[in-house]
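Quick one, probably user error.
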């Protein structure tokens, strides 16, 4: 019986975070937040049915849109087949090698002249289940990117934009703010999507502005240090760090950085975290 069969069928759950934007107004505001892209390459993450892609294709000289879903990627290729400025890549954005996409082309560099990447602007109504992974990946290749406009779950946007001292400030806020200036632009209600998600969304603009040099923490180790500092949310900095550092050195470093051992990582701004990290690495600096 068809009715009995459909009653037993499990509710379809959107796969790959597929909530498609249906509001032209929200699409226009999102693309508008990228600014003038008439001379920029744009990378779109998860173009889906192409609502942002169509607007972008008219504005940028080069659009690279990365879509994991095979059927959607094929439909996009058909739709934008005539647009010579649009490349549809059927791929997992987390597996894209941005060096080969945006880095120097072998054989094209001139000896003695340093390669300067053309800054790329990134946009996407992200698949929410991998928001942090996508951001970390973009930060890893931040030298290629100028700004990132993303639609994410509202609570995640609040965390990315949170200031030190508040309950939402954590490793995601610290990492994002280490690489970029974060602006929360506007909220998007569930009704702007099909199917509607259970949560509100928000659009953020991240203007890439890496702080590592300024903070004296260039190199890979500082992110690992932040991860360790925020390790267990309710623990003090002392308790999160003492598994890795010996106590006398840790005590001295915290004193040198003027940070109380009872402080929690979420109360420290990036400059204070960097001061602790530097004092642990170079015990004699500043003493
Ligand atoms: N941009 C479209 C829009 O606004 O209507 C679609 C947004 S939908 C929230 C997220 C899109 O990301 C889907 O099309 C989904 O197939 C795609 N996607 C999911 N995981 C992906 C991944 N790892 N790499 C690339 N695209 C992915």
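Nope, works fine. Designed sequence:
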């Amino acid at each position: 019986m068809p009715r009995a069969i459909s009653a037993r069928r499990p509710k379809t759950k959107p796969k790959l975070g597929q909530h498609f934007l249906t509001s032209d107004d929200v699409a226009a505001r999102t693309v508008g937040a990228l600014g003038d892209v008439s001379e920029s390459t744009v990378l779109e993450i998860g173009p889906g049915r192409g609502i942002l892609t169509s607007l972008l294709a008219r504005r940028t000289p080069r659009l690279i849109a990365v879509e994991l879903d095979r059927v959607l990627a094929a439909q996009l290729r058909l739709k934008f087949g005539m647009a010579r400025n649009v490349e549809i890549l059927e791929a997992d954005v987390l597996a894209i090698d941005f060096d080969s996409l945006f880095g120097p082309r072998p054989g094209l560099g001139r000896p003695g002249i340093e390669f300067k990447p053309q800054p790329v602007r990134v946009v996407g109504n992200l698949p929410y289940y991998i928001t942090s992974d996508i951001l970390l990946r973009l930060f890893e290749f931040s030298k290629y990117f100028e700004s990132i406009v993303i639609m994410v779950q509202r609570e995640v946007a609040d965390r990315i934009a949170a200031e030190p001292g508040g309950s939402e400030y954590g490793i995601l806020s610290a990492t994002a703010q280490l690489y970029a200036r974060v602006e929360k632009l506007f909220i998007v209600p569930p009704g702007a999507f099909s199917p509607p998600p259970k949560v509100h969304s928000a659009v953020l603009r991240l203007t890439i502005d890496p702080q590592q040099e300024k903070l004296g923490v260039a190199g890979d180790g500082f992110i690992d240090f932040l991860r360790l500092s925020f390790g267990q949310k309710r623990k003090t900095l002392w308790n999160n760090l003492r598994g890795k550092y010996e106590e006398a050195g840790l005590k001295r470093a915290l004193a040198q950085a003027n940070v109380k051992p009872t402080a929690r990582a979420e109360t420290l701004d990036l400059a204070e975290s960097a001061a602790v990290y530097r004092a642990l690495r170079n015990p004699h600096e500043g003493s």
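The first strand starts at residue 20 and ends at 21.
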